[in-house]
Write a structure and sequence with these properties.
The structure holds two protein chains of two kinds. Helices cover 0% and strands 51% of the residues of chain A. Chain A is mainly beta. The mean pLDDT of chain A is 90. Classes of the chains: A mainly beta, B mainly beta.
Chain lengths: 111, 115
């Protein structure tokens, strides 16, 4: 079964760049890596999705190495409102078409 | 454009009962997936439906079932409730024919407490 591992928590000061890494050793060959943000009492919200190399949108960048066994979400210049839990989402390579969320990283932005 | 709507938002059941949760996807979205979120196990995938067919299923016992109607609305049912079924149940909808591509739009969830 796929195993996705993330750091449990991270602290950062406002204005800094934050990098959160997800390890996914058994990702399916043709599957995408997606990151979500979740605030308390809300459903997760899409941040970014990628398949390989680098993807950038208006809120984040996603770096994926050639072996695709990990991915790094980069949040530039975080603010207090970025305090949330961040999840990566990948699929299992066994063919069960199972979707696996990472364990989640609780990011706390400090003033 | 209305978001994903889940009902009820909160409910309390006792062990052995069954529960049905409802999800109305964003208009035009044909894929609906369900997730269980608990403090101990995190976010776990239950199943996904596309055009009334279950396309993918996670590793949950048969007590957990679902269905999708022709208007894309979906329901999930949990029978013979156990204390460990207490969780936030999240529904997400998507336009994508291929699962795990594109953006999942989540509802706010249904919080189930089993006593």
């Amino acid at each position: 079964l796929a195993k996705t591992t993330q750091p449990i928590s991270m602290d950062s000061y406002e204005g800094q760049e934050v990098n959160i890494t997800c390890s996914h050793n058994n990702i399916a060959t043709n599957d995408y890596i997606t990151w979500y943000q979740q605030f308390p009492s809300q459903g997760p919200r899409f941040i970014i999705q990628g398949y390989k190399t680098k993807v950038t949108n208006e809120v984040a960048s996603l770096f994926i190495p050639a072996d695709r066994k990990s991915s790094t979400l980069s949040l530039p210049r975080v603010s207090l409102s970025d305090t949330a839990v961040y999840y990566c989402l990948v699929s299992d390579q066994t063919g069960a078409n199972n979707l696996f969320f990472g364990t989640g990283t609780r990011l706390t932005v400090i003033p | 454009k209305a978001g994903v709507t889940q009902t009820p938002r909160y409910l309390i059941k006792t062990r052995g009962q069954q529960v049905t949760l409802s999800c109305s996807p964003i208009s035009g979205h044909r894929s609906v997936s369900w997730y269980q979120q608990t403090p101990g196990q995190g976010l776990q995938f239950l199943f996904e439906y596309f055009s009334e067919t279950q396309r993918n299923k996670g590793n949950f016992p048969g007590r957990f079932s679902g269905r999708q109607f022709s208007n894309s609305r979906s329901e999930m049912n949990v029978s013979t409730l156990e204390l460990g079924d207490s969780a936030l149940y999240l529904c997400a909808s998507s336009t994508q024919r291929e699962y795990n591509t594109g953006e999942l739009f989540f509802g706010e969830g249904s919080r189930l407490t089993v006593l």
